[in-house]
Write a structure and sequence with these properties.
heterodimer; A: 360 residues; mainly alpha; MetI-like fold; 2 domains; disordered N terminus; B: 328 residues; alpha/beta; Rossmann fold; 8-stranded mixed beta sheet; 10 helices; 30% helix; 21% strand; membrane (chain A); MetI-like (chain A); cell membrane (chain A); transmembrane helix (chain A); OppC_N (chain A)
Chain lengths: 360, 328
């Protein structure tokens, strides 16, 4: 405790006429209990009374100056530490900009992303795609649409896929992990062998298989495939920390108080196990974006050619016309890299901030 | 009827492919209402396992608990898990050794105190929090309104242990088990916590089982003391009797090894030979025999019986110490 109100002798120098000034320890905290039968409130009244008015006023003043609004939770504390970390700032700025662009895409984009412009299609041939012009700073895509507008609208798709895939994966993973960790025994064994099977397959290969299994590809198959791939990671992570929590002292203490098993799992084990999962969610976001882009790149994504999607733009337009207009590949690739990097940086910084070992 | 009557409690840890290990070996003791009973012994003598077995908190697998734990006549070992859960925290409270790790780090103190009130006394959250404030005040936590919303890592070690005591006493249990409640604390805070415990136990009439390896704690608090060695009670005596006339060589050695202010300068501290590892199984003889200064042949012929002594205690020794030692 460095709280000045609880440190002795800050107020004014000790004088001989205040014998109740505790010789050791501090005035407000951990005072030895006095005679039995007195309530602590009475005790406090009496000892404060002898402290003298000046000292009491000084203590009140100090208390006001150092008053904190109450509890600082683990998460608020982590947030504070996050704000001081430059890596986190960079990550947060990238993520923030990306989210803003995605939300306000129709306002930012200069043109309609699906409209084909006459001035662009006029010069469009197989070996010449118009570059930057006054109205179209990034030039045209192979179908004569405004490339910049498509890039901007592509962010929406990326965000949509990333958020949904991560959320679905998180929900399923937490569910499985919590069940395995809470019940233990054969439930745990069965669920964990299932996750083992899923983890044994390379994630992209598993995602491709899942998408290929769907009769008709849509953006939902992509989202679902990417989500499923992340489920075993979340389940493993949560199950591990749930098992550790199960052995912890405070869970034993809760048991000793007769807390119901359901409450022990939901109120004591789960909240303490979630930190690692929350961090993993941020990192999974980056992976989900990359996986979704990879699926589109491989032609397994949404078949709708009007929808702007970075992976698709990179795979179909960028690759096919790389020798004609390499920018068609550069821009989407760069966008994917930067956004994935942003989420990774933020995730790593969160991992550091939330790690209890770094707490003061 | 005694409040708690532990009869022939044994705990055997059994792992597949390993020799079973008897952690607690036919331990019997009683606790009368309002009485403070000490369980004393060094690490690994079965103190904590005894307390966990009484509370039914040992893991379900890997151990075998036999004997009887009669709490007001009901055998806790035979209760259904749900009934036992209803009693834990309401009839029997428990305080653990490490106050930081025994509190849930992500829940404010107030909610943790309130939880037990909601659980056992059916209060709603608002009422429970008001009661929690009173409880924190009663255990001498300053500024309880603020502490209610604070998290365990924000308050000092002494305050955490006070909060744990508040939680354990929230439902006014008739028995409180304190498992080394002061080991993780500074010496000054230790004294305060012990004074607080004594005061609360006196005020509420709660019986207390004090588990400790600290003879100073025993001297200040306990009415009756059970000395454990190798999972068995080797000596039981009233506090003054034990400190004035320890009969068992182990107790004697423990008391002799306490540093004293009036000892001659430069004199070496008395120590008990060997370590806990140097024991023999009780079936073959006295487990303390390899370390004992008073060992006789009979000590290796099987376990000595626990026999009543003239002064009202019990003793498990073939060749007890007769000399008196000054109370340290």
């Amino acid at each position: 405790m460095t709280d000045p109100t609880t440190r002795p002798g800050v107020g004014k120098p000790r004088t001989g006429d205040t014998p109740t000034d505790q010789p050791a320890g501090n005035p407000t905290e951990d005072r030895p209990a006095g005679q039995a039968g007195e309530t602590p409130a009475q005790r406090r009244e009496r000892s404060l009374g002898r402290l003298g008015d000046r000292k009491r006023a000084r203590l009140d003043e100090l208390a006001r100056a150092t008053a904190d609004p109450g509890g600082v939770s683990l998460y608020r504390d982590a947030l504070r530490r996050l704000r001081r970390n430059p890596v986190a700032i960079v990550g947060a700025v990238i993520v923030g900009l990306f989210v803003l662009v995605a939300i306000f895409a129709p306002l930012i984009a200069p043109h309609d992303p699906v409209q084909r412009f006459d001035e662009l299609t006029r010069d469009l041939t197989v070996d010449s795609i118009p570059g930057a012009t006054a109205g179209h700073p990034f030039g045209s895509d192979p179908l004569g649409r405004d490339f910049l507008s498509r890039m901007i609208h592509g962010s929406r798709q990326t965000l949509f896929v990333g958020v949904l895939a991560t959320l679905i994966g998180l929900t399923l993973g937490v569910l499985l992990g919590a069940i395995a960790g809470a019940f233990g025994g054969w439930v745990d064994v069965v669920l964990m062998r299932l996750t083992d099977v899923m983890l044994a397959l390379p994630s992209l290969l598993l995602a491709i298989t899942l998408v290929a299994m769907a009769s008709r590809s849509s953006q939902w198959t992509v989202i679902f495939a990417v989500a499923i791939v992340s489920v075993p990671i979340f389940a493993r992570l949560l199950r591990g920390s749930m098992l550790a929590q199960r052995e912890s002292d405070h869970v034993l203490a809760a048991r000793a108080l007769g807390v119901k098993e359901r409450n022990i799992v939901l109120r004591h084990m789960l909240p303490n196990s979630l930190t690692a999962v929350i961090v993993q969610a941020t990192l999974t976001f980056a992976v989900a974006i990359l996986d979704a882009a990879a699926l589109s790149f491989l032609g397994l994504g949404d078949p709708d050619i009007n929808r702007a999607e970075w992976g698709l733009m990179l795979g179909v337009d960028g690759q096919r016309y790389f020798e004609v207009r390499p920018e068609l590949a550069y821009y989407p690739a760069l966008a994917i890299i930067v956004v994935a990097l942003g989420f990774t940086l933020l995730g790593e910084a969160m991992r550091e901030a939330i790690d209890p070992k770094n707490r003061r | 009827m005694s409040l708690l009557d532990v009869r022939d409690l044994s705990v055997v840890f059994q792992r597949r492919g390993e020799r079973p290990f008897t952690a607690v070996d036919q331990v019997s003791f009683t606790v009368e209402p309002g009485q403070t009973v000490g369980l004393v012994g060094e690490s690994g003598c079965g103190k904590s396992v005894t307390s966990l077995a009484v509370m039914g908190l040992l893991p379900k697998r890997g151990n075998r608990v036999t004997g009887e734990v009669l709490f007001e006549g009901t055998d806790l070992l035979k209760l259904r898990p749900d009934d036992l859960r209803d009693r834990r925290g309401r009839d029997i409270g428990m305080i653990f050794q490490d106050p930081l790790s025994s509190l849930n780090p992500v829940i404010p103190i107030g909610v943790q105190v309130a939880e037990v009130l909601e659980r056992h006394r059916g209060m709603d959250r608002r009422k429970a929090l008001r009661e929690a404030r009173e409880l924190l005040d009663a255990v001498g936590i300053p500024d309880p309104d603020r502490r209610l919303t604070e998290f365990p890592h924000q308050i000092s070690g002494g305050m955490r242990q006070r909060a744990l005591i508040a939680i354990a006493l929230a439902c006014k249990p008739r028995l409180l088990i304190a498992d080394e409640p002061t080991t993780a604390l500074d010496v000054t805070i230790q004294a305060q916590i012990l004074t607080l415990l004594k005061q609360l136990v006196d005020e509420t009439g709660t019986a207390l089982i004090m588990i400790t390896h600290d003879l100073g704690v025993v001297a200040g608090l306990c009415d009756t003391v059970n000395v454990l060695y190798g999972g068995k009670v080797v000596e039981r005596a009233a506090r003054h009797e034990l400190f004035a006339r320890p009969r068992h060589p182990y107790t004697h050695g423990l008391l002799n090894s306490v540093p004293r202010l009036d000892s001659v300068r430069g004199e070496r501290l008395h120590a008990i030979r060997g370590s806990v590892a140097d024991n023999i199984p009780w079936v073959e003889g006295c487990a303390f025999a390899p370390r004992c200064d008073n060992v006789v042949d009979a000590c290796l012929d099987g376990p000595p019986p626990l026999e009543p002594t003239a002064s009202g205690g019990d003793l498990r020794c073939n060749n007890p110490v007769s000399e008196e030692v000054a109370v340290p």
